[in-house]
Amino acid sequence: MSLIRCKDLKLAYEKTAVLEGIDFSVETGDYLCVVGENGSGKSTLMKAILGLITPAGGTIEFGDGLERNEIGYLPQQTIVQKDFPATVQEVVISGCLNKRGLHPFYSSDDKGAAKKNMELLKIYDLSKECYRDLSGGQQQRVLLARALCATSKMLLLDEPVTGLDPLVTKEMYALIKELNEEEGITVMMISHDVGSATEYANRILHLHNRQMFFGNTEDYVKSNIGRKFLGDDITDKIPRGDYYG
Amino acid sequence: MISPTRYREVITMADQIIEMFSYSFMVRALIAGIFISLCASLLGVSLVLKRYSMIGDGLSHVGFGALAVAMAFGAAPLKVAIPVVIIAAFFLLRISENSMIKGDAAIAIISTSALAIGILSVSLSTGINTDVYSYLFGSILAMTSSDVIMSVVLCVIVILLFVFFYTRIFAVTFDENFAKATGIRAGIYNMLIAVLTAVTIVLGMRMIGALLISALIIFPSLSAMRVCRSFRAVVLTSAVISVICLCLGVTASYIWATPTGASVVIANLIVFICFWIAGRVKKS
User: Fold this and answer.
1) I need a surface site. Which of A84, B27, B48, B237 has the fewest CB within 10 A?
2) Cβ separation of B183 and A85 shorter than 8 Å?
């Protein structure tokens, strides 16, 4: 049984199809990268998996004991958060809300989970700091710790390295890989950085309003579409239509 | 050494404050004002952080329009204004959430239209009289005993909801998409805050003034955000600021016979400047 299984999925905004014919599955322990250009439907697919939009056709099934609200989601940063007055502790523990039900306050278990995840991501010494005073990389770690509070099974990361400098980007990728390998957390990441995607992920899903490729990274690198997408010096020269010939 | 004249001044001021409490309208204004500003400041934290400050301003203009129309037809002002402003809150929230329409421009259109409808209906019926003046700029005499009761009830509801849903209000304010992904129905919380804001504004606008009431929502949390570093501290500090400023403003308006609403807003402005300087000093 797969963690997530999408069958003939169709997603649309106000009757305009954004994605069609999506068929893939995420297995426990996978590191799946969803790649594609801007506007190719990556974010839409992610919203559908999180239940923020309803599919126009096809199904999304959750298995292996995974519930939809047990996915640890790392969204892209919003403007609202840039100057938000909240401590790291307050942000991280808000990831535990999906286990709270109707209970209004956090339990000591929640506090323990928050502490454990902050220690795991080496931000425990920042726990009393204000979120808006942190660097971009530290803020991403805080949001990742929050996502880990919401899940023990699967992370869904939306462009987690946007706006980070190269060194911090590398650290972030290493951290995600570590979570995948050592903590056994399944990772599904949206990225337009195909180079890093093929370096770290074991599976690739390539979207361009439909499913262009789904399979192992080694096969993707050898495939036509993969070769074209990876050769970054030729991407500028080939007219867009030629990718999908 | 305090000079004799200065001493006398201090004594007279203390006497005046004691005297203030002998007037029942002042006591009503103080009680209702404290509870309304407390509600406004709590709701304001979420509204300001979500960049919805303009909703408060828009709602107060719609409130004025509704009161003026109600007055022209001789209907009970609150019974008309509260439902109208709640409906407006639904619309304004929808507009702000929908990035396809330019939210700030749409709010400006709605608020100026409501103001125009209000002014028109007033001038066609009674003409600009003291009632209209007091709706626009507030009047200390506006609070009746039933207003005081409603303010207290509203405040208790707001505080209870805030305490009970505190963790979720934080989550929805900080990151709506993450909150939705963890199964929180963010739309309901947004709507709840908008509706409570609508009621707070209608109750408070006759005392503070339709043109000034949104300051009560925005100022305390903005001041608190200058110095506080946690969400909890922002909530608590802005609640304290709002109550202190209300008391200062009302007292000042009694002693120097200044307009109540404007005095409260000026008190808030002074506190904001102090907190802004404090925040700057703390940073450097």
Assistant:
1) B27
2) no
Shortest distance between the Cα of A231 and any Cα of chain B, in A, equals 35
CB contact (8 A) between residue B167 and residue A73: no
Asked if pLDDT for residue B113 goes beyond 70, the answer is yes
Within chain A, which residues score under 50 in pLDDT? Answer: 233-238, 240, 242-243, 245
The distance from CA B165 to its chain's CA centroid, rounded to whole angstroms, is: 21
Neighboring chain B residues of A100 at a CB cutoff of 8 Å: 167
B51 contacts in chain A (CB < 8 Å): 79-80
> Which residues of B fall within a CB distance of 8 Å from A130?
229-230
- Per residue in B205-260, pLDDT (tens digit) is 888 988 899 999 999 999 999 999 999 999 999 999 999 999 999 999 988 989 99
Residues with Cβ within 8 Å of residue B100, at least 6 apart in sequence? none
pTM summary value: 0.85
Q: Tell me which DSSP letter residue A206 carries.
A: E
Smallest Cα distance from A216 to chain B, Å: 28
Q: Is B131 helix (H, G, I), strand (E, B) or coil?
A: helix
Cα–Cα distance, B268 to B242 (Å, whole number) = 8
Where do we find the tokens 């399944």?
Answer: A186
C-alpha to C-alpha distances, B4 to A22, B16, B18, B105, nearest whole angstrom: 87, 18, 21, 58
Question: Residue B47's closest chain A neighbor by CA?
Answer: A80
Give the residue from chain B lying closest to A144, CA to CA: B178
Contacts of B230 in chain A (CB under 8 A): 85-87, 90, 130
**Residue A149 touches partner B, C-beta closer than 8 Å:** no
Residue B59: pLDDT above 70? yes
- The DSSP bridge partners found for residue A211 are A207
Listed in sequence order, the residues at least 6 apart from A126 whose beta carbon sits closer than 8 Å to its beta carbon are A88, A118, A134, A138, A142
Domains observed in chain B: 31-211 (1.10.3470.10)
Contacts 24+ apart (CB under 8 A), A9-15: A9/A45, A9/A48, A9/A55, A9/A57, A9/A58, A9/A59, A9/A60, A10/A55, A10/A56, A10/A57, A10/A58, A11/A41, A11/A44, A11/A45, A11/A48, A11/A53, A11/A55, A11/A56, A12/A56, A13/A44, A13/A53, A15/A56
Chain B CB within 8 Å of residue A106 CB = yes
Asked whether the beta carbons of residue A85 and residue B164 sit closer than 8 angstroms, the reply is no
d(CA B139, CA B150): 18
Whole-number Å distance between alpha carbons of A198 and B250: 66
